[in-house]
Amino acid sequence: MDPAVRNLLLRILRKIPTGKLEETLTKWTHLSRTQQQSLNYSQSKWILHENIVYLCEENGLTMKHVSELDMIYCMENPTSATWRACQLTDAEDDASSVELISFKEQFKAHLSELIRNVSIKIKKHDDESIWIRIAWGDHFSKPNHLKPTYVVHYLQTPYVFICNLSSKNKLLLHQALVLATKHGSIKDANLSGRSFHAVRDLLMGHYNKTFPTSHSRPLKERNLSPTHPNIVKEHIEQAEKRQQLAREAFGEGTVPKLERATYTLETRFRGGSGIDTFIDSERPFKTVVTFESKSLLASLRHCVSSGMAESPVSPLLSSITQKGRNYFVITDKTNKGPDMTTQSFRSNV
Amino acid sequence: MDVRRSDVDSATTPTRQRQSWRNSVRTLNTTTRPLFYSGVLTAPRVSTVRRRSNAHQIDNDVDPNQMALLVKEKWELSRVTPMYNFRYTELKAYSKNLSAFLLEEKQQGTAAAVAGYDKVFAVTFSTISGVAKTKDDAETVFIQINSKPVFAAAGDAPKVVWSGWLTCVRAAPQYLQSLPPEFVCLPVFCSSGAQSLTFLVQSWFERTFDCSFGSLDLSPTDLQWLAAIWTSYHNERKIRSLKLKWTLPSEPPLDVTMAVDGQDAWDLWDSTHQQEDANDIYIEHVKRFLNCIETHFYRHFNIHLSAGVLKRVATEGASVHIDGKVKICPEYLPSTMELLTECAILRMPL
Prior knowledge:
The structure holds two protein chains of two kinds.
Chain A: H1 3-15, H2 18-28, H3 33-37, H4 45-58, H5 63-76, E1 83-91, H6 100-114, E2 119-124, E3 129-135, E4 149-154, E5 159-163, H7 167-181, E6 183-193, H8 196-204, H9 229-250, E7 260-267, H10 276-280, E8 285-292, H11 296-306, H12 315-323, E9 327-332, E10 343-346
Parallel strand pairs in A: 7-9
Antiparallel strand pairs in A: 1-5, 1-6, 2-3, 3-4, 4-5, 7-8, 9-10
Helix pairs in contact in A: 1-4, 1-5, 2-5, 6-7, 9-11
Chain B: H1 2-12, H2 21-29, E1 49-51, H3 55-61, H4 64-72, E2 75-80, E3 83-84, H5 91-107, H6 112-115, E4 119-128, E5 140-149, E6 159-167, H7 173-177, E7 183-184, E8 188-193, H8 195-209, E9 213-215, H9 220-232, E10 241-248, E11 254-261, H10 262-272, E12 280-282, H11 283-301, E13 309-314, E14 319-321, E15 325-327, H12 333-346
Antiparallel strand pairs in B: 1-12, 2-8, 2-9, 2-15, 3-7, 4-5, 5-6, 6-8, 10-11, 10-13, 13-14, 14-15
């Protein structure tokens, strides 16, 4: 076996937790059933990996097969790097008629035309998404399989999700995508996160949304000993209202797991309390605000329902779900209308 | 702790504003010392005003090579009670004693994990002059632990495995004067290196000088002070951004970081801070400065930052974490250490 292939195989194996190894190898199908049964998963990782490499050598597997293993693992566990969302724009008339085979051919043809020594692998996932693994090389070097770029696209939608893309190859990939999907251009959707599913669900709106409703929810009967029934009733009503607002803004139940949201504020100073320097001037008070949490939407929802955030929910925060973005540049509207407090969103592409 | 809290609260009300430290600093210069607090040891109180040091003066006070040692690392803070019979003339002996102590501990297996069995520790004690600002402050003591192989080859440079220093900057004079003369007060202990070594050094000090170490956690108010003080040095040391990090107790916890543009932060500070005496900083100004930033945030996001805790303040040159971790740059050193000295004295067990 080529040392490069062996090296890549070992690296991929090290990445996969032992608990998931058996399942991943079964999906891979390049080891026979008897070969798989000969593996002892309770052995130490090091011996187990050496045994797998031995079996692969026996089967004469090449770089093509090994990179497929990487792809299978990534498709099942797309949480290892930051995923950035992009949006295709200016669809041509026949954009909706693009199907898998023509996309595959077109994409491969365009990208290999733009750059030599590139290794492309395309697979369809069970949920109709197309997964593309690209190992980049250049005129003088072979494709580097250690740092592949992954691209996920849902046909007939404008959404593309990319991870591990260097700025050097960005233009090439964008061009190949635009041509293969029959669109005019592609732009950054200002949304990124470590979980592919969260980014996708947020952008494509696949999560439990609660829609605004003016109907009051029926109150449950409670066996409390109230100090004053009206006060208790009012408290319950307020709490329920906050809960409702929180759900409307950030979703219900399990929400997409987003890690952060960033706002570049270039707005006039609103700190007040007699500080005139910034109030009089048109100069913005420049601040970058970052929200971080293990699950940002769940945290924000809790902030609203617990009262740390006051109602109404700031449009800047609800825009995360409404616009499916987590990167914003906020400026004041330039025209001096009567409403001085409104802000405008300017996307940063 | 309770004493401190109540004082912080009362500090925000203007009635007590100009009574405490400002007077003390001024009267010190004119040699008349009014009676300050009765029973100083039982009731040290937190300052409501601090004096900025002149940045140019700092450069000349401390030897640049020694300054480099102080600003290189991120330090973990502890507080130390006054040390009995600590003598600056005995530093060489202390170096030997501590080396021997570490060797002994290593033979018992405690410190071996840090250096390995084939290494020995060499400790050096030295003083750093210029950090202390008044004649009552004891000189800063710097300790470095090197490890070197038992059979060192000619080219083997000793490796620094641990460093630490004890300092005292503008400690309350009435506190220092209340101590018996055989005690040396160096209340702030900064350490950087393996925890096990920190522990051993501390226990050596405790045995040798009959003192005791404790953790030096800071309060959000201390962090607010530092945010304001560091911003006030913008003309001496340009800040690109002033970073403030709050943690809100939501489920899961939410971290909010505001990185305010350095020039904007300074302009805001400048307009918050009345210009009557540029070198005095009052707690009301600090509170107002932070309040303005929090309000600016609230007007955009409708979230009360006051529901959370200010956990970290940082500029390019320095950072401080509420858990008692600090990194400093030369310009900020005197003011920061003065504040930490005060914190350490306030947290002394009585």
